[in-house]
Every structure is written in C-alpha cells, then in structure tokens.
Design brief:
The protein has 304 residues and is of the alpha/beta class. The protein folds into two domains: 222 residues, Rossmann fold (3-Layer(aba) Sandwich), CATH 3.40.50.300; 60 residues, Alpha-Beta Plaits (2-Layer Sandwich). The protein contains ten helices and 14 strands. A six-stranded mixed β-sheet has the order 6-7-8-3-9-10, sandwiched between helices. Strands 2-1-4-5 form a four-stranded antiparallel β-sheet, with helices on one face. Helix 3 crosses helix 4 and helix 5 packs parallel to helix 6. The longest helix is centred in the middle third of the chain and has 16 residues. The radius of gyration is 23 Å and the shape is globular. The relative contact order is 0.14. The protein binds adenosine-5'-diphosphate. Adenosine-5'-diphosphate binds next to strand 2 and helix 1.
C-alpha cells in the first residue's frame, strides 16, 4: 500500500494557483525529497498532506485513509517538523515535550521514556534541564524534531528541516532521518537544496511553479538525462574568458584554480583539444553523472 496518494490536487490562494493538478504516489518506507526553488509550492503541499490546510479540489489518501473524511485519524499517524520552531522559551525541553505529549494523548510515563531516549539520540541529553531560551536555533530544531516523533508516527514530514542550521545540528538531523527511515518510517522531506536531496533521498519529486514536473527513484531521475558532464580544472588565468570555449556552462574560482563545468553531453574528447589549444594549464579532468541541478535546468530551462 502506498503511504501517500494524491490525484489532481489543486490549491488556490484567491485566484493564484499554488498547486496545479498534483498527482503523486509515495510508497511505504520511502525517503522522498520534494525539491524545488522557493515559491514552487512545497510547503503548501506538505500543509495539505498533514491535514493543516484543505485543498481547493482533488483527492488525498494517507495510509489508505481519505483526508477529507478521516483527518483526525490521519493526524495520529503523521508527524511534522516545520521550519518554524514552536517551543515555550521558559520551559526545559523535557517540560516542553511533556506538554506536547499530553496534547497528543501520550501518557506521562511512556512519554518520559521516549523523550529521554530521543534527547540522547539527538545529542541533547545534557541540556534536558536547561530553559529552551538559551538554546541555539539548531538545538531548538533538534527538540522540535523530537516533538514530531512523540506519538510514534508512521509517516514523518519535514519542511526544510535544516534551513539555516549549524553543521552539527544538520548532521544530527540528517542521521536521525536516515535511522528513522531504516526503522520503517516513511519520510517526506522538502528542500530547495538539490545537493541535500542527492545525499539522502531514495526518491525525489521536482516541483516548479505549482507543478510536479518529475517524480520517481533518485537514480532513474538522474539517469533520465543519460549524459555525463565534464569538469576541467585549470590554473587561474584572469586574462582569459572561459565562456569562449565551446560547450562551456559555468565556472567557479577557488584558491588560484578555475573549475569549468561543461554542458551535459560534452565529452572529454570534444573539450580537451580546445582547452589545450588555448594553452591553459590543466590540473584535473572529471567526468560525473548528471546532478539533480542538471535535471532541473533541463526540465525548466532555469537554474534552481
Ligand atoms: P515553497 O514551500 O516551495 O517555497 P509555498 O508553498 O510556500 O512554496 O508557496 C507557493 C506559492 O504560494 C508562492 O508563490 C507563495 O507566495 C504563495 N503562497 C503561499 N502561502 C500563501 C498564502 N497563505 N496566501 C497567499 N499566497 C500564498
């Protein structure tokens, strides 16, 4: 059974169509990254799938249940970590989490055990009796993450969970996401960072201006371009403009070297003669599989 199925989902804000006919299926046990630039409609879709907002039209089934008639039951089965952290500043993480557990109908004893286990997992046990007010954004987000897990959800939604966080918190949350998925929880995560999805996703959905323009297994989507891309690293030569080289796509300068990315499909054999003719000092040549960014550019004609 699929964890999520939507058909012809539409959401309008006034006359503006934020979601246009989204038909999507996410399998049980998947780790699905919903990708797309800011404004693509990711949060709107997540808010609908978690029962926080009603669609204008279309159907949604979550764990086999119909969202329009069984929203209460669905809320019991899903957890949401959103970018906005809502915690009481004067309370400790344990007090905060006990409060949320009671709202979710989880008994105090079971809740306490779960809270301590999870605080340890996110590396926050030493902070259990300190007020949340003194925590960094990343520490608050780690507590917020636990909040979404208190009722042992079958499906966990994370809306830009690592946006603006420090590296330690980002790593902790990413590892927890993997671990939870390995334990059988279906994960749906939004991000506008393509590299984040490449690191973690089993499947991806790419959104653009309210449409789902691609959805499927990560390797199938990357493979859809079927073209590797070549990057040539040369010694920086400020007098030279690299755009003149045929097949050029972009360049990045770091520490006296320039990495020149060529358009997907250009091979080393096509590129190298031109580079050598220009007497550039070649340091490295790499050939890589297409990235999700390449797929996005190909599908939309825009960069994310
Ligand atoms: P994303 O999460 O991909 O950044 P959102 O779902 O937040 O995208 O927004 C999609 C579009 O809908 C954007 O153009 C945004 O401005 C618009 N939008 C989002 N929420 C509202 C709202 N409450 N009222 C009106 N427009 C909204």
């Amino acid at each position: 059974m699929a964890a999520i199925v939507t058909s012809n989902l539409v959401k309008k804000y006034g006359s503006f169509e934020a979601l246009k006919n989204i038909s999507l299926s996410i399998g049980n046990g998947d780790l699905y990254c919903l990708l797309g630039p800011n404004g693509a409609g990711k949060s709107t879709l997540i808010r609908i799938l978690t029962g926080l907002m009603k669609p204008t039209s279309g159907n949604v089934r979550v764990s086999g249940m119909d969202l329009s008639s069984e929203v209460r039951e669905i809320r019991q089965k899903v957890g949401l970590v959103s970018e906005r952290v809502i915690l009481y500043d004067r309370l400790t993480p344990v007090e905060n989490l006990l409060f949320f557990a009671s709202m979710l109908g989880v008994g105090r004893k079971a809740a306490l055990k779960r809270i301590y286990d999870l605080l340890e997992k996110v590396d926050m046990l030493d902070w259990k009796n300190k007020p949340v007010r003194i925590f960094s954004t990343g520490m608050k987000q780690r507590v917020n993450f636990i909040r979404a897990l208190l009722h042992d959800p079958e499906i966990l939604f994370l809306d830009e969970p690592t946006l603006g966080l420090d590296p330690h918190s980002t790593r902790t949350i990413r590892n927890m996401v993997r671990e939870l998925n390995e334990s059988g929880i279906t994960i749906i995560l939004t991000t506008h960072v393509m590299g984040e999805a490449e690191n973690i996703a089993k499947s991806v959905g790419i959104m653009h201006r309210g449409e789902l323009i691609s959805s499927g297994k990560l390797e199938d989507i990357q493979g859809s371009l079927k073209k590797d891309r070549v990057t040539v690293t040369v010694k920086d030569s400020s007098v030279f403009s690299f755009e003149k080289i045929e097949g050029y796509q972009s360049e990045t300068r770091v520490d006296g070297v320039v990495k020149i990315d060529f358009q997907p499909g250009w091979t080393i054999e096509n590129i190298l003669p031109a580079v050598l003719r220009m007497k550039l000092e070649v340091i490295d040549i790499e050939q890589k599989k297409p990235s999700l960014e390449d797929v996005f550019v190909k599908l939309t004609g825009e960069s994310s």
